[in-house]
Amino acid sequence: MSPVLADVLQVTALIAALALVHRPLGDHMAAVYSSNKHLRVERWIYRAVGANPDVEMRWPAYLRAVLAFSAVSVLLLYVLQRVQDTLPLSLGFKAITPDQAFNTAVSFTSNTNWQSYSGETAMSHVTQTSGLAVQNFVSAAVGIAVAVALVRGFARSRTGELGNFWADLVRGVVRILVPLSVVAAILLVAAGAIQNFAGIHEITTVTGQTQSISPGAVASQEAIKNLGTNGGGYFNANSAHPFENPNGFSNLLTIFLLLVIPFSLPRTFGRMVGSVRQGYAIVAAMATIWFVGVVLVTWIEYAHPGTAAQLAGGAMEGKEQRFGEGASSLFAVSTTMTSTGSVNSFHDSYSGLSGGVLLLGMMLGEIAPGGVGSGLYGMLIMAIIAVFIAGLMVGRTPEYLGKKIGTREIKLAACFILVTPALVLIGTAVAMATGHGESSMTNTGAHGFSEVLYAYTSASNNNGSAFAGFGANTAYHNTALGLCMALGRFLPMVFVLALAGSLAEQKPVPETAGTLRTEKPLFTGLLVGAIVIITGLTFFPALALGPLAEGLAA
Fold first, then answer.
1. Residues 461, 543: Cα–Cα separation, whole Å
2. The pLDDT of residue 314
């Protein structure tokens, strides 16, 4: 079988699997967040934290709960890293330095999972399982909760109540993420991923040298790392490591896991607002952008110029021979268009134009399909912008799902879409102007600039992947990137929840002959166009200095 045919069959199988679970998983999540009943284990958790899950919250209370929970999570994870050398199963590792502990605590709490450390030589078993893996669950559940709150804003009327954060958080973990992760972990173990708490193994290599091999509870963390679009690997090589990703089956399963919830949440949205066609329009826009990205990166990597690349059948530098061009490109696009950040190849080795597409996937706001929860609320914000543009074109007050999009709503949506570009561009500019960016670059010229741009794009968009040549473990970058991750995660949530509260208070507007049909393919096309144009106008100058300059010079 030719590599190209194998790649086509792989993408086809992935799309078929995602389509197969789209409806049942989307309906299940809608039922979870619409239910008035609490499981026994959930009631135990509510009593333990002192929360009343039956009390409805307005958006300021919902936001305070999100921020308070996240702040406590950052503090606990920071302390755990600072004292890990005194805890059991430390593997002899030292405590993490203050700046790196801050960066890692913010990273995992914000669902970014940016790693300026090598997991197998830095983090103890207790830190990995009780700290990092726990945040993989709860940070993902926070993202879904905020998305569901926005959906309730569209679905409800004449009330400012958006549900209960603690109920949404606990249900997301107990009824969605834990069951799916258990199944995924079993499949990964069956595929060959390791799962143990053994000590470090010293082995002798074929050259006669000694090498330390760190084991760990890898399969369980690998499952939620991708299912929750987290991305933090147990090992420095992430999903390129055979202990995490042993073969082609585990690789395809991993890609499926990181896409399945984001691609199913539009169905949840459609069910909760009472129109599944609205969900189909949103998922169609997501799928269109994702598929175009996969085709572009795969084609560029196969056709990469140069004698060595042509003889190898493509640009194989930085890629696993086990996966080849197609599976590596599919993984790279999927991980950058979600907020996952896990990698099975090194993006720093991709050609200039391919690296530009991966950067663009994050710059779009990671909405195709985006992170768990964050992808849906990001796409709904863009839908509001698209409706507003359409209203300007025909001279009508814009409406979406029976809610008028007025001055307040547009201001909140505009603030949302301006946060991450400001963090990316200002963060990159300051790093380059102060010399901290240049001193951390492995390469020079356009590719070196792309390393810095990629780092701040990844942190601000809560992705977590990196151009591997970028030296991130400095006091400056640990602090600056940590601030970008925190602001990039929680500041947009302020505007999302404020928008949800504003929409929930409105009285529904009856549909008329002049109402834009937002469930039609025409609107899907308008939505995709608005996303691409807004992103292009914002980031084209920065892309021209980095990946475009490198790609055109090749």
1. 16
2. 55
- Among residues 191, 288, 331, 336, the alpha carbon closest in space to that of 528 is found at 288
Q: How far is CA 267 from CA 36, 66, 86, 307, 502, in A?
A: 20, 24, 47, 47, 23
Residue 554: per-residue pLDDT: 62
Please give the backbone phi and psi of residue 202, each rounded to the nearest 5 degrees, phi first.
Answer: -100, 120
Angle between helix 374-394 and helix 521-545 axes, rounded to 10 deg? 110
Question: What secondary structure letter does DSSP report for 221?
Answer: H
Contact 234, 218 (CB under 8 A): yes
- Which amino acid appears at position 219 of this protein? A
Query: Two tokens at 217?
Result: 């509870």
Which residue shows structure tokens 């991130």? 472
β pairing state of 201-204 and 210-213: antiparallel
Q: Give the integer Cα–Cα distance in Å for 142 and 169.
A: 6
Q: What are the residues facing 400 on neighbouring strands?
A: 403
* Separation between Cα atoms, residue 293 and residue 301, nearest integer Å: 12
Q: How far is Cα 111 from Cα 118, in angstroms, rounded to an integer?
A: 18
List Cα–Cα distances, 307 to 314, 451, 472, 530, in angstroms. Answer: 10, 25, 33, 40
CA-based nearest residue to 516, from 379, 382, 387, 381: 387
Q: Taking a C-beta distance cutoff of 8 angstroms, is the pair 188, 253 a contact?
A: yes
* Residues contacting 258, CB < 8 A, separation 6+: 226, 227, 229, 334, 335, 338, 340, 342
Q: Are 325 and 313 in contact (CB under 8 A)?
A: yes
- Asked if 527 and 387 touch (Cβ cutoff 8 Å), the reply is no
Please report the pLDDT score of residue 119 as a whole number: 74
What's the rounded Cα separation, in Å, for the pair 143 and 474?
29
Nearest-angstrom CA–CA distance, 421 and 397: 28
First-last CA distance in the chain: 31
Q: Which two tokens stand for residue 274?
A: 């009472």
Report how far residue 177's alpha carbon sits from residue 224's, in angstroms, rounded to the nearest whole number. 7
The structure tokens 């430390």 sit at 90
pLDDT per 10-residue tile (average), the chain, 554 residues: 87 97 97 95 94 95 97 96 88 90 96 87 85 94 97 93 96 97 96 84 75 80 93 87 92 96 97 95 97 94 65 68 90 94 90 92 93 96 94 83 93 96 96 93 89 95 90 93 97 97 91 83 94 90 92 76
- Candidates 111, 155, 157; CA nearest to 137 is 111
Tokens 């102060």: give the residue: 434
Query: Cis ω on the peptide bond leading into residue 369 (within 30° of 0)?
Result: yes
Beta strands in 408-500 (DSSP E): none
